[in-house]
Amino acid sequence: MRKIYEKYMFFIGIAGQMVFYLQAAKIFSVQSAKDVSLPAFLFGLISVTSWFIYGILLKNRVLIISNIFAIIGALAVVVAILIYSK
């Protein structure tokens, strides 16, 4: 049962990070970050980076891989906000 749940969490861990990618795509497509909070996404970036480090310390593949996706997505949003904030 644990292996099945680990596979489920691997999928959910990556799929759940799509929120960052969707937000970044929206900012880049409309070329505006007017109503997007930079502090919120910076905090999110710190959070997922912390989970990534924790995953490394635990040697937990699910935490490491899902949070790599999260870090890339969160960085994309932060960069998009910095480029398109007016």
Short description:
With 86 residues, the protein is mainly alpha-helical.
What does the model show?
By secondary structure, the chain is mainly α. It has four helices and no strands. It has helices at residues 2-15, 18-30, 38-58, 61-84. Helix 1 runs parallel beside helix 4 (61-84), helix 2 packs parallel to helix 4 and helix 3 packs antiparallel against helix 4 (61-84). The radius of gyration is 14 Å and the shape is elongated. 22% of the residues are buried.
Name a few traits of the molecule.
4 helices, elongated
Provide a count of the helices. 4
Radius of gyration: 14 Å
How would you describe the shape?
Answer: elongated
Strand fraction band?
under 5%
Average pLDDT, to the nearest integer? 94
Helix and strand sequence: HHHH
Low-confidence stretches: none
Oligomer: single chain
What level of helicity do the residues show? over 70%
Which structural category do the helix and sheet elements fall into?
A: mainly alpha
End-to-end CA span: 50 Å
Count of individual beta strands: 0
Largest sheet: none
